[in-house]
Amino acid sequence: MKKNILIIFAVVQLGLVACGKSQPLKPKAPAENVSLNLDTTNILIGVYWPPLLEFVNDQQFKLLEDGHVDILQYVVPYTQEQNLKILDLSAKYHLSSIIADARVNGTNASIAAMVAAYKHHKGLAGYYIKDEPTIEQLEQMAGMYKALLAQDPAHIPHVNLNPVYATGMLAGRDYEKDYVEKWIQLAGAKNLKSLSFDNYLFMDDGTLREAPYYQNLDIIRRLGIKYNIKTSAYLQSVGIPGAYRRPNQNELRFNMYSILAYGVKYPVWFTYTRPADNTAERFTPAILNTGGQITDLYEPFKRLNKEAKTLGKQLVKLQATAVYHTGAVIPQGAETLPGAYYLQPAPGSGNLLIAQMQDPSEGNRSYAMVVNKSLADTVTVTFNVHAPVTAIEEVSKLTGTGNPLPVINGKIAVSFAPGEGRLFRFNGF
To answer: Which Gene3D superfamilies does the annotation name (predicted)?
Structure first.
């Protein structure tokens, strides 16, 4: 889905420059000795397809700040002067940007010159390398990744992987071992700032692409734990008629909480603004429309980001050691909740996703994120609480504090809005 968007972006940018709509700015001298301006004590929220150059202004960047965004992902090259304008506004509004500069594809000298132009800017998050590389491109991408880190170890070299359903790229090869794990090994697990991938759920015909969705999340979850790498996933917030539908607010909520349950520490909205149509694809409005106007999804986007950031102070420390599913039909490749698990929903409680989490900083204290998989119904679930749990708190998505839940006769009752997730902390182990 992204490759056609990149083509559109490049054509739009060339048109703007040719028409004189984009005037070069005088470069500003970068501030010295500025460290990476990203909060390592919380999860990060990103947006793909941020405001185009003609909308790089105070109004648009204030919307992003108000929306609790951390990172803007720019992926088609602008000039150095234009990138510096983006970085200046990013810093002004407490944001950071992945910038795209054509010199990243050049010699070591050109990469060094590119890095020198940006590395001390406090609005910089990192450098775009590649979106959705093929298996055959991984070795080259790993070389570029390492070359950037050699020049600037503080910032993010951005590479995003294909999903498990990219069958044409796989050509009979194993997605986990021959693609994702190969990338980790080529780039070096200690070098990777995050393990990022595409994964879109909401299809235009009204169905859900469930099995690949959960399978992909679980592969990335397991490899993230195995190699001690933070993980990143894209959230669907735009539609392409004939392929993907535009999600509603309940679907946005489920998308966010389901990937958090699988341990993702860097969710990225795809897309933030509406991409321009081309002959191959037409796009629905996203969180913003083409002209920079907010849509009905902006307020849910803003609210979900705030909830995720509030919970994120705890989530960033947690490992999702297992993820279980309940309900009459368990998606292919997903794991059924074991009967011995200490938080058991009563029979007929609906379709739930239950992630077992642990905090190594608290001696592996146990947590669970429970997500209502219904996209339409609010459900109240009664859970049977088994030993060794002696007490339960819910980590509030409004305050981040722990609120005790009354356990009455070994049971608790909790309500979930459509797609909602709740984070629980257990006493007793």
So the answer is: Glycosidases (3.20.20.80)
Q: Determine the distance from the C-alpha atom of residue 393 to the mean position of all C-alpha atoms in its chain, rounded to a whole number.
A: 27
Q: Are residues 174 and 199 in the same domain?
A: yes
> If DSSP codes are grouped into helix, strand and coil, which group holds residue 286?
coil
Give one DSSP letter per residue of 211-239, joined into a string. HHHHHHHHHHHHHHHHHT--EEEEEE---
Q: How far is CA 313 from CA 256, 402, 407, in A?
A: 16, 12, 26
Clarify whether residues 330 and 301 are in a common domain: no
Which residue has tokens 């679980």? Answer: 218
Residues paired with 99 in a beta bridge = 127
Three-state secondary-structure class, residue 83: helix
Residues in the chain: 429
Q: 84-126: per-residue pLDDT in tens? A: 999 999 999 999 999 999 999 999 999 999 999 999 999 999 9
User: How many structural domains does the chain have?
Assistant: 2
pLDDT, one tens digit per residue, over 375-409 is: 999 999 999 998 888 899 999 999 999 999 989 99
Residues 302 and 409 in one domain: no
Domain span at residue 189?
2-315
Cα–Cα distance measured from residue 186 to residue 184, given in angstroms and rounded to the nearest whole number: 6
